[in-house]
Amino acid sequence: MEPVSTTNFDLYDIVVSGSEEELKNLNKVVLQGWVRTNRDNGSIGFIEFNDGTYFKNVQLVYSNSSKNYDLLRSLKTGSAISILGSVRLTPENKQPFEIVVDDCSLEGDVDDDYPLQKKRHSFEFLREIAHLRPRANTFQAVYRVRSVLSYAIHEFFQERGFIYVHTPEITTNDGEGAGNVFDVTTHDTKDLFSFYGRKVNLTVTGQLHVEPFALAFRDVYTFGPVFRAEHSNTVRHASEFWMIEPEMAFCDLNDNMDVIEDCVKYCINYLLEACPDEMNFFNSMIDNTLLERLKHVANSEFKKMTYTEGIEILKNAVKSGVKFENSDIFWGMDLQSEHERYLTEKVINGPLFLIDYPSEIKAFYMRLNDDGKTVAACDLLVPNVGELVGGSQREERYNLLKEKMDKLGITQELDWYLDTRRYGGCKHSGFGIGFDRLLMYVTGMQNIRDVQPYPRTSNSIKY
Amino acid sequence: MEPVSTTNFDLYDIVVSGSEEELKNLNKVVLQGWVRTNRDNGSIGFIEFNDGTYFKNVQLVYSNSSKNYDLLRSLKTGSAISILGSVRLTPENKQPFEIVVDDCSLEGDVDDDYPLQKKRHSFEFLREIAHLRPRANTFQAVYRVRSVLSYAIHEFFQERGFIYVHTPEITTNDGEGAGNVFDVTTHDTKDLFSFYGRKVNLTVTGQLHVEPFALAFRDVYTFGPVFRAEHSNTVRHASEFWMIEPEMAFCDLNDNMDVIEDCVKYCINYLLEACPDEMNFFNSMIDNTLLERLKHVANSEFKKMTYTEGIEILKNAVKSGVKFENSDIFWGMDLQSEHERYLTEKVINGPLFLIDYPSEIKAFYMRLNDDGKTVAACDLLVPNVGELVGGSQREERYNLLKEKMDKLGITQELDWYLDTRRYGGCKHSGFGIGFDRLLMYVTGMQNIRDVQPYPRTSNSIKY
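The joint structure predicted for all components is written out below.
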């Protein structure tokens, strides 16, 4: 029987849930991957082997009767190898099977200064070797979940008929005017105007560009990189990250919140189903409340509370002795993470939409409520994190929107955006999810630098 | 019976392929969308209505006995409306059904200067209104296919276990050194070094960053924006576009070509299946050889030819009287589009991999063949376009790679990239597909400005 070329993933799949027939065909196999550890007692040796296709290692067993025994026993952590062997079921052991090695060849050797030796490494250390850390257990889990979560996002929206729009990275406007932007220039000249004939910067949001598509396709979304040139050296800020920004025509704030709730639940359930090994790993190694927390959110009905109600509750909390870093609670203030967490954790004990924020503290494009002082915004707050998603119904009334834009002095620059309110511009809403923060939330990872492939933070760039 | 809120897509879906039961439930419906055209003869009127969920319009019929008749007859092209009506099957007509309007409300009016009136508009004109053109037929088709094709790409790779990696947009290197890069600075200072402490630019390729992930996960891909600050004012060049870059460990040039062939065929078949209306539209309105051409590629076995063989064939063609703009054919030259098209159209009449290019005209990371002068590169050439995909086996041998990098003076800057050859760096290969050019290819659209949502080309930026 010819040997079958296979992978860690396929081996576990067939041994755990395959048929007798499939298992029989797996007698002689060829595997290609990397040595995680190798120990040899002089007559028998064991290699923990991983080819990157599955979170779990495969155990290779060799002996002094194996062909290439000298090569096998000399294999170092990190070596790339190709092996021929037979599958032996080991139902009595921790792992359900092992591979008895017949032959081995070395596909890529490892220099002695290989930094990923068997011992445990700190995340700080691993950050310095972003090109090698994907081989470490935690990062195998993080980056696989990152990939699966990206796909879950696409699946969620595509299955519901949303059109994916690639909004531009280079743009002439700075979105909400919220943060500092990166300027884009051409090589050597440093002339901001030379290439496009206009000053341009990297985008901070795709929302303004995607709204016109919602007014043509009804339901649309962006999912791409955005940028902030802020010198915030915190565990939650990066200067480059991915944003998910859906936008829906004929959709009000309540419809919007329904989609947010569905989307967050879908992502959590998707990961629990598609990445059980990785999610269990995070739960045991990173945050042992993770699975409980996520399942609680997936099974909760998301509650709603107005900002005004929230302020009253916080004021009463302070009166009754609750301590905040900032205890000066007043209507019109920007809530801090501690306030948001108090509301979602102590008051509600579950996911909470805080809605109808004061107009002054929210972006110009949000729809003014009938009270004339709040806007139809919603922030989704979740226990342990605070804000996870921000959304709003957009101001579709030309005059009200233009008045706000005039005040900000952006009417001319964004004339095309205002156009959409003159030409069949109907009620519409949308929201934004910072993908990297969502990933931190679902993995329990505490530093945004540890969920991005090559993190971009101020004063730090190597790759 | 309560009216059912529905969409163009669902209506066509149920009328064309739904059950009796589903159809019965669709008696009274609510629709929300936009007026494409409205004509009224004084007693009966017809609105071509589209809500963006489906390529085909729905015909609304009203009469002077409809509620809000005066509103209905006054509706202008582009208005957003909400209507209540009943489904009437019209199997004898061109469209299989129409909606008899009971009532209508205006959700968003249209100013009289609305530029998208019923008449046909040139692509040049529509380019000036990138925020409105998604409402035009051609762009409804283009952007829906863009979204579906993006999803097809993700599905292709995710189903095969590839890990999606978000490689960074801001980087310290300029990839292959192929084109001019955009520099990134912080606001006002114009100081290239101020933010990251190092000079940075926008990425031209994700490949160098994704290779280390292939050496950890085996099969990986990127799909994100890349940039070129080239002043090429052609129909095929944009300064910002999306690239798909898969990378596979334990994969040689032949395996690589198998994946390219599978991927291209998968995309074509996916679109023919998922977007029949849009693809038929392109075939009748944009390029009437499109479907034939795509089906031919989907059903062809992709052929292979070495660059050296290609040069011989081109030399003989010139001798026998074939005219090229550049008829000076010699080994070592960079082939022009006319040469590539001659080979794929006249010689092969189908998709052709041209392989084993001279080392001097290809990137430094490509693997040197045993002949010492060619590299294991493959360009996929297709009729009507020329190059569609470029790939190679990567140089995994440390000394050979370092020698080339030393010559280019990039060894220090890319020390981390070179590292991957010292630490279990095995045979690996990958390829790149310019997503926007692939989209041009599958739609027949001739100008890259007409397949991007907000095209970015030199001297032109408005949004």
